[in-house]
Specification:
The protein is an alpha+beta fold. It has helices spanning about 15-45, 50-85, 90-130, 295-315, and strands at about 130-140, 150, 165, 170-180, 185, 195-200, 205-210, 215-220, 230-235, 245-255, 265-270, 280-285. Among the domains are: about 25-60, no CATH class; about 130-305, Rod shape-determining protein MreC, domain 1 (Thrombin, subunit H, Beta Barrel). About 40% of the residues lie in helices and about 20% in strands. A hairpin with a 4-residue loop joins strand 3 (about 165) and strand 4 (about 170-180).
Length: about 325
């Protein structure tokens, strides 16, 4: 035994005793853990350790459930507190990101609508085999006395005065002025507009005319023709300007006054320039897009009947009219 300077033996210190005890306890725990792990692996869930573990979980499950229930509101309050204490920089960043996403969403919706309109124009062109040029409406009438729109194509794109213009919904009008890069289109509702048209179901032919009030009428259709509300009005192809069969509008009113030779027919146009942006300018017609010989004969027969009826009855104004077989175009 070590001796102190006075010759007495030195007593074991408390610190050394605790370190020795702690080391032995650690070794015992490690050995016990390895032994229990080995036994658990060999015996599985059906062994004694599995049974003890299952019983312990069963006994402590109410306590764990109660703890989760109690901690849920506290956790929710913590989240609220975290959100309330978010710094201003984070909130500004989130607001900017939200604005960017909203703007992007608007751009995507606009692109989708534009693609749908262009696809509708392509479908119309392909269905009718139209020789055409696409254009965009860039402005409306510059005065209150005419119904016109301006498109962004002109003579540099091969356009010229007299060419018909249509949207995917129906005929819009006809070019009346043409510059190098822009053209003016007179709408069907203009009081100076007049084109050949016919009722699709009965093939009754007449002239579609605008008015100062914007009302559109199908004139020169004799009272013997069969026309009803809801009938579709299309281009007749007479005159060789508008291709035959393009949709124009729908009959909304038919009146037959006693003694009159012609029906009073009001037509609601399909195309609305306020909701149209892209249009097709029809640059030329094929032979199949013009009125057939039977159509021309029918128009001539109708005009002859109306003229003879006016001469014999002393009523009507057929003798001074252009007739249904007149060329398409806007009268000045």
């Amino acid at each position: 035994m070590p001796l102190t300077s006075g010759g007495r033996p030195q007593a074991p210190s408390l610190t050394n005793s605790r370190q020795s005890t702690g080391g032995r306890a650690l070794v015992i725990c490690v050995v016990a853990s390895i032994a229990l792990f080995t036994v658990s692996c060999r015996t599985g869930e059906d062994g004694p350790l599995g049974v003890v573990r299952g019983a312990f979980q069963t006994v402590t499950s109410p306590v764990r459930y109660l703890g989760a229930t109690v901690s849920a509101p506290i956790q929710g309050l913590g989240n609220i507190f975290t959100n309330l204490t978010a710094d201003q920089a984070t909130l500004s960043e989130l607001q900017q990101e939200n604005d960017e996403l909203r703007a992007r969403n608007v751009e995507l919706e606009e692109s989708e609508q534009t693609a749908q309109r262009l696809q509708a124009l392509l479908d119309l062109r392909d269905a009718n085999s139209l020789q055409s040029t696409a254009a965009r409406i860039i402005s409306g009438a510059s005065d209150s006395w005419s119904s016109t729109v301006t498109i962004d194509k002109g003579t540099s794109s091969g356009l010229s005065v007299g060419m018909p213009v249509t949207s995917s919904s129906g005929v819009i009008g006809q070019i009346v002025e043409c510059g190098a890069t822009t053209s003016t289109v007179r709408l069907l509702a203009d009081e100076n507009s007049s084109i050949s048209a016919m009722v699709q179901s009965s093939r009754a032919q007449g002239m579609l005319e605008g008015s100062a009030t914007g009302e559109v009428s199908l004139t020169l259709v004799r009272t013997s023709q069969d026309v009803s509300v809801g009938d579709v009005v299309i281009t007749s192809g007479l005159g060789g300007v508008f291709p035959k069969g393009l949709p124009i509008g729908q009959v909304t009113s038919v009146e037959k006054n006693p003694g009159d030779l012609y029906l009073d027919i009001v037509v609601e146009l399909y195309a609305r320039t306020e909701s149209s942006e892209e249009v097709l300018v029809i640059t030329s017609l094929t032979e199949g897009q013009q009125a057939s010989a039977d159509d021309i004969a029918e128009a001539d027969a109708q005009e002859s009947t109306d003229t003879s009826g006016s001469a014999s009855g002393g009523q009507g104004d057929a003798g001074t009219s252009d007739g249904a077989s007149a060329a398409d175009g806007s009268s000045e």
